[in-house]
User: Fold these one by one.
Assistant:
Number 1:
Amino acid sequence: MTGRLTAATQLPDGVAGPGYDPQAHGSGIVHLGLGAFHKAHQAVYTDDALAASGGDWRITGVSLRSATAAQELAPQDCRYAVLERSVDGTRARVIGALAAALALSRDRAAVLAALRAPATRIVSLTVTEKAYGIDRAGGGIDRAHPAIAADLADPRHPQGVAGLLVRALADRRAAGVPPFTVLCCDNLPENGRMLRALLVDFARATLPKLADHIACDVAFPSTMVDRITPARGAGTLALAQRMLGVHDAAAVETEAFRQWVVEDRFPTGRPAWQAGGAIFVDDVRPYEALKLRMLNGAHSLLAYAGFLAGHALVRDVMGDAALAALVARHMAAAAATLDPVPGVDPDTYADDLLKRFANPHLAHETWQIAMDGTEKLPQRIWAPACDALRAGQPLDSFAFATAAWMRYALGRADDGTSYELRDPREQALRQRLAGAASAGDIADRLLALPDLIPAPLAGDPGWRAAVVSRLSVMLTDGMAAAIAGEPR
């Protein structure tokens, strides 16, 4: 094997490097959740901003659980390649925006020091929906969530998002340092407002005098992020080595498309992310609903139905004409529940999504998308379904997606093969479904699961009938037959 990618690597022709001297810029952002999506999205926008306008805006990346990302990046001077895959080919680009890569499990003191540092003006997050510990019913903390429970018991040594941020904000206030802006970049509705409510509630339980400071003095702009980024595989690393001529243990592959819509509320400043195409708005909610319902909702439908129909990858789903038609139908149903979005034509947006899903060069696994369904489906499927119910619009696609999730929740494929659900409520799902056999019994048990499916939907007889009829076909005839039998 050849050498390892570092800051000193001479990149081959056709591979772009940072358009600035990374060492001339300090860190001004701490990012929690140092995964592939951050490396393909926010870090790329920051790389563009540094090239265009400079500033001390490099990123200290933090993994809250595994130390793998930090171990991959540290020997490479935190450099890594983003491989942009499109029908026109692959473009490689080496990113220099990361200044440091830390893991909370081994670098706790350094993580807390970075969060306390006056130079840190933004803390951004991509930790996935399940990591926050949100009480879905009340909007505050879920005291049964493992990280929340641990941090309530020992707030001086935080493990989770709420405990870590509240501790850092308390330390900054005690030192007379202004609070950082908290920038949630996960797929949650009104994610900034959600995170504010979470931290305020956690502070009330641990540091009551800090709660009003967080509620009134800390900025929590909401965001909408979009870039399809599959989990990295061996093929990613092999492609990176062919294109770079050296080994890159931290390479990521993604699509060429990217989008970032951000509420422009940054009291202590921000990078010039608009240089990379970021859109700054007063209210992100219309864009957020568009993406959650049309892209993410369709992704969930195709993940459950596609996985059970034997399609391992999204591109395979889009090659199945019957299932691809249901994906398009779902986008139209979701679009009907939306308010107008400035500058966006829903039909054009849907057409572009279908092309992105069909990208032949992205190996995006349906099983990856299917994980954490109890965290994702409330905003992706059931919120628009509630709106459709109120408006008297067809519920077919939402009912099909729900039935597909219920079928998936049984944990066995049509051929009897078992699989892990990879859901934070997996144990509760399995316990509730134990002994259930008929479609009606399965549906009733899951419709009654606390704090999941909204009551107006779960209690509607027409909705139940629509779900049960589809689930019955899936159970008796298989997923492929259920797909074929759906109206287009």
Note: The first strand starts at residue 27 and ends at 32.
Number 2:
Amino acid sequence: MKNIKAWVVSLRLRTLPLALSTILMGSIVAAWDGAFRAEVLLWAALTTLFLQILSNMANDYGDALSGADNETRVGPQRMIQSGAISLGQMKKAIIVLVALALISGLTLLAKAFDTEYWKLLAFFLLGLAAIAAAIRYTAGKNPYGYRGLGDIYVFLFFGIVGVAGSYFLHTNAWQWEVLLPASTLGLFSTGVLNLNNIRDIESDRKSGKITMVVRMGRNKALWYHAALLADGWLLFLIYAILTSRTMLLWPSLLALPLFIRNIVRSFKTREPSKLDGELRNLSLSILLFVVLNAVVLIF
């Protein structure tokens, strides 16, 4: 029973709503354009969950190998760090998740594109890139998460690829305007990573993990955090105006106070461990923002 609990903890369930938000946003934009497909949403969501869990476990594995997860680390204890799961067991779990992500992803592509083979190939290669990026974040030689490149990864895969990619899977068509809500989700998601790295700044410094926050320092990282969230809202405003969908703003504005509160509390919080609650709150605020956008489809 204890081992089952350890594996459940290693999934990092609280990261999953953020991953699903990107797929939901792309699906909602597709629905606004009259091209929603339920089977695409289902398989895209499942594939995204596998990729997110893969990323979480690879992160646990990589940080354990590098020493980034140590006694000075703030935040939830990692399962390899605690000794509940061995490196060998985690490596096997990573292999299983790669297989599950591939199976789910191939099913998604078959549902979306049928016999359009060039699209199948293009998205298959994109899927392989997503798997590689999930693993290489903190695992392998010279992981990019240790060189301050994690923010770029999150912006691309939680924003551009997640939102614009899922939109294309629904519609089989491309609209440049979709890059605006995609960038909104990318910036919001990068804000979550940034807040996580502000919390972990001291342990990351000691272990040699050079995140953007370590490069900038805490004070600049807080202003960077505010800019990420503010710019995300600005891009969504521009999208609503350009596409004559200003009615989208009214439901989503209900989530705005939560983003403002997150910025204010992040500046006021001096104890790193207390930022953990703000991490959870920001992830849920992003999910609420996305769900509120779906309200327009109902009314």
Note: Residues 151 and 190 are 6 Å apart (CA to CA).
Number 3:
Amino acid sequence: MAASTITERPVHRVENLVSDEDQHILNMTPDEARRRLLADDAARVLDIRGSFALVARDGERVRLARSLSRPLRYFLAKEAAGPLLVVADRIDAIHRFLAAEGYTNQFHPTYTRMVPAHHVTEIALVGCPDPNPRYTRFFTPAMATLPADLDLIGRRYVEAALAEIHTWLDAVPPEEPLGVLFSGGLDSGALLLCLHDALLQRQESPARLKAFTLSVAGGGADAAQARRFLRETGLEFLLEEIDGPADGLDPRDAVRAIEDYKPRDVECATVGLALLAGIRERYPAWSWLFDGDGGDENLKDYPIEENTELTIRSVVSNRMLYQEGWGVDAIKHSLTYSGGLSRGCVRGHAPARRYGFRLVSPYTSPNEIAVAEGIPFYAISSGSHERLYALKGEVLSRGIRQVLGRELPVFAKRRFQHGAMENEAFDALFSGDTERYRGYFLAQYAPRA
């Protein structure tokens, strides 16, 4: 990363570009959170509630940690006085800082490093050409501890989501409006019902809540599904449809926003940017949004057949596979990007950040993931893909029925990007070509003639 003349010595300078105002910590101050990060017991980081991306220094020790719902990156550069560690939530922020310091020649986007979710990353002595960080896990949920009782599992899962929502609502001023990025699917549908119920429990007006649904050029199946969901639940008054112009969607802009090139994340971010742009245009002062990100990962609702590296056994036997990827010690682990949702979180975080929203993803909280990891997936599915895919509908519908006393409409699974537009428009817009998207990203940093 830096020139080979660096010998091992302590980090000389740490520049943290993530301000305390960017932290959304719900139960302590940023200084208290940093003290926990420096504690001998890494598990104390688990006490930090909310959304955070932290760096703390104690002499020669530098520690970093983050929530699953947001990125945190770092880069090591060389100065005459010693190594310089730059910490930020975006690659382009690191690049701009280095350019201002006169160190552009040391930078390449692939030399940046992502702090993996659920780990404390420690850099004590920095050698060359790369730092040798030490990872200590602070969140290790037990696997398959619950009985194969779908009613019990559903109740525990929805109770955890509702508790997380209440924790966030405690931090939101009661006059602030609340939005849900809504398709009428299982995750956003259960989230909307929980938010509505939480407001009623708190004797606050549900009129402050809206369900925002995107329709590109008047097409896509999500708008009709959202209308049907809200009609069946008696909440039609919450719906707000956002019409996105087809010429306003640009996958290259999504690549710039998320600083990544995985096709599914590029597609999701492309339509997410259109939805958020429409909300911002209509409501210039709106701040708080909730989404269902993390729900598919928790309940393992991804088509295994689309990934030749996966089997149902690997999906259900590897702790938090969809949240973290193969793990920090695996050969397949990307130092630049991390893995799983630890990498993919940018698909929601970056578009929301661009348009000035505070995005809350309750399903990504450790308490919710702990319930999900306790599900005996293999015992319930008996190795059947179809039973595994049906599980999320069973868990959420049973949980909503028991906890809220309501029926959750269940529709066939559809990705956000597919539901926002007609199939022909989708095929014309997205190439699905990883290398093409990677080229868009790297071209931003290519030397100019």
Note: The first strand starts at residue 9 and ends at 10.
